[in-house]
Amino acid sequence: MDLKVLRYFIEIVETGGFGKASEKVHLTQPTLSKAVRQLEDELALILLERGKRGTQIKLTQAGEVVYRHGKELLAGRQRMLSELTALRSLNGGELKLGLAPLGSAEIFAPIIAKYRQLYPQIDMQLLVRGGVEQTHAIQKGDIELATGIIKAGDGFEGIRVFNDPMVVVLPKENPLSKRELLTIADLLDDPQVMFETEYTLYQLVLDACQVAGFTPKNITRVSQADFGIALVAAGTGVMILPSSIARRYSVNGVVSVPLASDDLRWELTLFWRKEQVLSFAAQAMISLVEKHLSNQKTMGLQ
């Protein structure tokens, strides 16, 4: 059913005849009459009782039904267009953003603050979970954008927002703490403090150890970097961390030694499903991240 013809029909009813309606919609009376006839043929019902020229038209019962529902359809169309306009202008809509718990707050806090300042009417929902859960959530469509460590070719597109080398955090009394550089193999005999299994960094470290020919022994799992470093200071074991995180949560009694590994790095990415049609709200976030990274590069902070 053509909404344009419905609008003509409603104008005829509300103006009381074809003459006034033709002036309002800028069409000739024969054209309007033809349009209504086509609508009646489509529905196989008579909608208007037509009197003599100059007399007011009258709705049939079927016409009253079409008039009532036609008004609702046109109002719904207008609401749809208004809502789409709000989305385009970022005066409405929502953004569901997943944040990896490790490092995302520090990196994204200023970006999110700027986003809220620019687009206060967008409903932003933040989901802070481990990388594995983030990936599942974005695959299911529960979130639109996420931060995490992903591999190329996993069905995602993204922007790398941070690339950090790894260090080994050790107690000062550990003999390895005197070294200037360590390899994964050097940790063969040391208990390790590692993140919980839902963190992507856990799997990355585990894979690196297995490539080096061993599986970490006596693993103590944590969900917070600062608690992990506190355990290292207490002598529980050693911990592999991004250098920036190790610096941020460093305490007395621990030493961070660079890890010699080109493959094991903390590469935080803002990502989304490949070929996904992103909302205007998500596109605005991506643009803001790109601008932030460009400014950081200009200032020499990356």
Topology diagram in text:
Elements: H1 3-15, H2 18-25, H3 29-43, E1 48-49, E2 58-59, H4 61-88, E3 94-99, H5 104-118, E4 123-128, H6 131-140, E5 145-148, E6 156-171, E7 191-195, H7 200-211, E8 217-222, H8 225-233, E9 239-242, H9 243-248, E10 254-258, E11 265-273, H10 280-298
Parallel strand pairs: 3-4, 3-5, 7-8
Antiparallel strand pairs: 1-2, 5-11, 6-9, 6-10, 6-11
Helix pairs in contact: 1-2, 1-3, 1-4, 5-10
Could you describe the 3D structure shown?
- This protein has 10 helices and 11 strands.
- The protein is α/β, with parallel strands linked by helices.
- Helix 1 (3-15) packs across helix 3 (29-43) and helix 1 packs across helix 4.
- The chain folds into 3 domains: 3-88, Arc Repressor Mutant, subunit A (Orthogonal Bundle); 94-160 and 271-298, Periplasmic binding protein-like II (D-Maltodextrin-Binding Protein, domain 2, 3-Layer(aba) Sandwich), CATH 3.40.190.10; 163-266, 3-Layer(aba) Sandwich (D-Maltodextrin-Binding Protein, domain 2), CATH 3.40.190.
- Helix content is 45%, strand content 22%.
- The two termini are 57 Å apart.
- The CATH topology of the largest domain: D-Maltodextrin-Binding Protein, domain 2
Terminal CA distance reads 57 Å
Written as H for each helix and E for each strand, in order along the chain, the element string is HHHEEHEHEHEEEHEHEHEEH
Over the alpha carbons, how many angstroms does the gyration radius reach?
A: 32 Å
What's the story with the biggest beta sheet? Answer: 7 strands, mixed
**What is the CATH superfamily label of the largest domain?**
Periplasmic binding protein-like II
Number of strands: 11
